[in-house]
Every structure is written in C-alpha cells, then in structure tokens.
Write a structure and sequence with these properties.
Structural class: alpha/beta
Strand content: 5-15%
Strand order of the largest sheet: 1-2-6-5-4-3-7-8-9
Number of helices: 15
CATH class of the largest domain: Alpha Beta
CATH topology of the largest domain: Rossmann fold
Radius of gyration: 23 Å
Number of strands: 12
Length: about 350
C-alpha cells in the first residue's frame, strides 16, 4: 500500500507539470507528499488532482504500463540531470534498455532519399557496435532510425508526444508492435494515459529525446523544425550536437548545415560518433546477396563513386527503370548516396 501511495503522489506531481520546482524540491530531500504540501494547492484542486492520479494509477495496472518516478533507481540518470525532467515516465516495453548506451537521432518528417540512406548507414554502424537509438517515433527520419536499429538486431527507445497507449502516427502501428514484441526497446512518455496528439506536445517532448543521451544527431532538418528544437534543447542541457551535412540548395539541409557552421560536429559515418564513445569499430564486410542482371550492371558501373546522371547514361536504362534498380540496391544496403547526387558502393 505504501508503494501505491508513493506512485500516486508522483502521478499527481507529474500532472501539475511544474517540473523545475519539483526537481529543485526533490533535490533538497523533500518527499513527494512534502512537495505536494509545499505547492499549496487549494483543497478542491488538490482533491481533483488526487482523484485523477488514482484513476491514472488504475489505468496503468489495467494496461500493463509501468510507471517510473523521478525517485526511482530505474529513472534514466542523464534525463534526471536536465533542468525540467518529467516527475514520472510512463513506459511500455522493456525498461532494462533505459540503462544502455544511446544516441538520439532526429530529423525531418519528409526526408529525401539522401537523408534516408544517411540515417540507415550511420544507425546500422552504431547498432553493430552496441549503441542504441533514441528518437521521437515520428514519421520520417525517426521511423527510419528506429526501424534500422531493430533490423540490425539493436535496441531503441521511442519518446512519444501522446500517452503511451495511443497509436500515433497510425502508420507506425507495426513498428510499435515490433519494438514491444521483440523486447529490444520501449516506448516512453510524460503524458497521461489516453492523451491524444496536440501541437504543443511535440516541442515539449523533444527535451526528453535530447535529455536521454549525451549526443544528439540531426540528419536532415529545415531551419524551423522540431529537429532543430531538439538540437536547441541539447545545447541548453550541455549535451553534444552532431549533424550530417547536405546540399546547400536543399531546404532539408539548411538546419544541419547551420548547426555545423555554429560548431556542431560534422558526421559522415557512424565511426565519427563511435569515437566519442571510445569504441573501436568492428571491421565488417558486406556479403552481397544475389544480384539480378540489371542490378549487376549498375553495381559494375559503380567500381568508383560516380554522378547519378553519368551512371544513367552509361547503363543505357530509361529513367524510370534506372530509378527502380537504384531503389532496390539501396534497400539491399548495397549502395549509398553522397552530397552532389553521387552514388557509391557500400562494400566494406
């Protein structure tokens, strides 16, 4: 009963949203009950909050949602350090991953093929060297990062802008199931059970994405985007910001290129990030799957990096067929895109 009362007090505090004050009072040694008393709610307001907290606790039991308060040893230590950590985290999945080494990967909801390829290339390298991926579970770069982590046998955390029981975006229903069923990750949120997506939820959610890790990598982002907000939070939190460079005429690269100009570390491979973890990268060799005759034509042309238009001209394929073959080779992980419409092999 004592543990239940404690958790209900933490739920109540979380519902107030007064995270900075809560952290300060908790760091001074006040108990959740003492913090509630200190905040000085009027009786009717306090009763309403307590009633809602009790209902929230019952919902969590019914849905199998774990509650991790700020006072718990299971609460992520890096997140606890930020100025305004959530008083409580809602979690679905395996909480053991909260103690692992992670990097945050964020980017646009409308990535280019270059951004998708860069994300896959970097994330796959990190995952094979034991680094997990934190992202915001949004469509776009976030989805690519989570998916690549799982495909590589790694682990991942999705930070939601809704209640953890809410499926959003709908297109990620399968990804959500895979994270939970595979037991190689979890979904977390500060928002109460059943909370639907609101525009103000996502910028607020972003401070948790950066707060969970020492490094935030921005792959593609316009100047005014959620990914840039996350990078801003990371800098405020004293964390490192890395960025993937992009074409100067691409809107999706304006944010990342600006970050690099302002001092973010330029990243062109996963090894650039592994250096920060003092990890000696594994030496890997790509084993080629069987190629179709058409794919072999492109593969042989790419004995060195070449401009996409040059490859098209040499191959003799029409543009539609050419794009289909290139997409298949990308999906097989055999080729990658570089800035300037250059393609190269991923062969070692």
């Amino acid at each position: 009963m004592g543990e239940e009362v404690l958790i209900i007090d933490w739920i109540l505090l979380n519902l107030t949203g007064r995270y900075r004050v809560i952290k300060e009072l908790f760091s001074r040694g006040l108990s959740p009950k003492e913090i509630v008393d200190f905040l000085g709610f009027e009786r009717e307001k306090l009763l309403a909050l307590k009633n809602r907290a009790e209902k929230e606790y019952k919902k969590s039991l019914d849905l199998g949602i774990e509650l991790i308060p700020l006072s718990s040893d299971e609460y992520p230590s890096l997140l606890r350090e930020i100025p305004d950590p959530p008083a409580l985290l809602y979690l679905l999945g395996e909480k053991v991953w909260l103690r692992s080494n992670f990097i945050s990967v964020v980017g646009t909801r409308k990535p280019t093929r270059y951004g998708i390829t860069a994300t896959r290339m970097i994330v796959s390298r990190l995952v094979e060297n034991g680094i997990g991926i934190v992202s915001g579970f949004a469509y776009g770069i976030d989805t690519v990062a989570h998916t690549e982590a799982l495909n590589g046998g790694g682990y991942t955390i999705g930070v939601l802008g809704t209640g953890v029981d809410v499926i959003y975006p709908k297109v990620n229903k399968g990804l959500r199931k895979e994270i939970i069923d595979s037991k190689r990750g979890c979904l977390i949120s500060e928002f109460p059970i059943g909370d639907q997506p609101e525009s103000w939820h996502f910028p607020r959610r972003n401070r948790i994405i950066s707060g969970l890790t020492q490094i935030t990598l921005v792959v593609e982002a316009s100047l005014k985007s959620g990914a840039m907000i996350t990078a801003g939070y990371a800098l405020e939190q004293g964390r490192d910001v890395f960025a993937v460079p992009g074409n100067i005429d691409s809107e999706n690269s304006q944010g990342t290129n600006q970050l690099i100009k302002e001092g973010a570390k330029l990243v062109t491979s996963g090894d650039d990030i592994l250096e920060e973890f003092n990890v000696i990268p594994k030496i890997t060799t790509v084993r080629l799957p069987e190629l179709t005759e058409e794919e072999a034509v492109i593969w042989n042309i790419l004995n060195e990096p070449r401009l996409e238009d040059d490859i098209l001209n040499i191959s003799g394929f029409d543009i539609s067929r050419f794009n289909t073959i290139i997409t298949r080779l990308e999906l097989k992980g055999l080729i990658e895109r570089l800035p300037g419409r250059i393609l190269k092999r991923r062969d070692g």
